[in-house]
Amino acid sequence: MTVRVWNGETGIQVSEPLMGHCHRVTSVAFSPDAKTIASGSGDSTIRVWNTRTGELVSDPLEGHKALVSSVVFSPDGKHIASGAWDRTIRVWNSDTGRMHCGPFSGHEDWVTSVSYAPDGKRIVSGSRDKTIRIWDPETGEMVSGPFEGHVEGVTSVAFSPDGECIVSGSRDKTIRIWDAKTGKPVRSQFEGHEAGVTSVAISPKGDRIVSGSWDNSLRVWDSKTGEILSIPFKAHVYWVSSVTFSPDGKRIASGFEDKTVRVWDAEVCEVPSGSLAGHGDVVACIDISPDGRHIVSASWDMTIRVWDIETGDAVSRPYIGHKCEATSVRFSPDGKRIASGSIDKTIRILDIETGKLLSRPFEGHNDTVTGIVFLPDGKRIVSSCNDFMIRVWDVETGKLVSGPFEGHTAAITCLVLSPDGQRIASSSNDMTIRIWDVETGEVVSGPLEGHGISVNGVAFSPDGKHVVSGGSDKTVRVWNSETGEVVHRRLEGHTHVVNSVAFSPDGKYIVSSSRDRTSRIWDAETGGLVSDQFHGHDRGVTSVLFSPDGKRIVSCSDDCTIRVWDAEIRREVSGPSEDDNKNLLSSDSIMGESRLDGGWMCGTQSELLLWVPPENRTGLWSPRNTAVIGQRTTKLDFRRFVHGVDWEQCRSSE
Question: What distance in Å separates the CA atoms of residue 133 and residue 143, rounded to the nearest whole number?
Answer without folding.
Answer: 8
